[in-house]
Amino acid sequence: MIGRVALGEPLISRDTALAIFKMVIVDSRGADELRAQEPIAVEDGGNVWRITGSRPIEGRETIAYSGPISMSVSKLDEAIVSFMG
To answer: What is the spatial distance between Cα 69 and Cα 6, in angstroms, rounded to a whole number?
Structure first.
């Protein structure tokens, strides 16, 4: 693992990061929420993959509102570094 990191090769692929995002959303919010987040973008953020849903922001007048969910996943160890939404 250290050798791959030294060479700048991520252990976690873009597809794996996207799969993690999808599993977390389905487990925590359900399949309907995952569908509402599509299309989902995955961007290279250096040491992390940045995954962002595209659900429009709704209900800002209340405390609980829906909108895009974003997550950052470490390329080194699959750790979820941030989760918002």
So the answer is: 31
Residue 32 domain boundaries: 2-84
Contact 53, 68 (CB under 8 A): yes
Q: Name the pTM for this structure.
A: 0.82
Rg of the chain over Cα atoms, rounded to whole angstroms, equals: 14
For 74, counting Cβ atoms within 10 Å of its Cβ (0-12 exposed, 13-18 middle, 19+ buried), the class is: middle
Give the tens place of pLDDT for each residue, 27-82.
Answer: 999 999 999 999 999 999 999 999 999 988 776 555 455 789 999 999 999 999 99
The total number of structural domains that make up the chain: 1
